[in-house]
Amino acid sequence: AQTVTQSQPEMSVQEAETVTLSCTYDTSESNYYLFWYKQPPSRQMILVIRQEAYKQQNATENRFSVNFQKAAKSFSLKISDSQLGDTAMYFCAFASSTGAGSYQLTFGKGTKLSVIP
Amino acid sequence: EAQVTQNPRYLITVTGKKLTVTCSQNMNHEYMSWYRQDPGLGLRQIYYSMNVEVTDKGDVPEGYKVSRKEKRNFPLILESPSPNQTSLYFCASGGVNEQFFGPGTRLTVL
Question: What is the pLDDT of residues A30-49, one digit of tens each?
Fold first, then answer.
């Protein structure tokens, strides 16, 4: 079974600064997807960024980028120029196909990020 | 607009009173699933469905039932709710590379 570990339950960052959220995972699969989801106080799950394991290039989405280290099974999220609206719970997630159109999506326990004015 | 809808959004009930949380998607996805979110535990999968009439247990299925009679709908049924099922519930649909989540249902069982 896959496991996803987020070792930082809570973090804080000054507005306009950069912060990195850590995530490690364990799997024997060679092809899979990794995600970072943002959950603001509204509770909506919002996809921030996605990485396909077979792509060596790190994914980026505006101020959000990842550092994907496949051999180390590490998938950290960097938020640049932090904004107050980035305050949220962030979940790292792993997905791999289990055959016949099915897949397993496993979440970490989350990191609560607070952006301080 | 592509979306996953859930109803109700908030529900307070009492132990043992059967309830159903509905989930519907308009994206023609074959795969749908239910998760519960609890503080410090992240999201855990309850049940999933690969297609109509095909469902299977996730990591925490005890106390829940599901059905998939139509492709677009995937209701979650609590036959006899207990206080330990107080949680935030999410329905999701999509493929391995992209999932769409509903807005969540906050359930409190007294």
Answer: 889 999 999 999 999 999 99
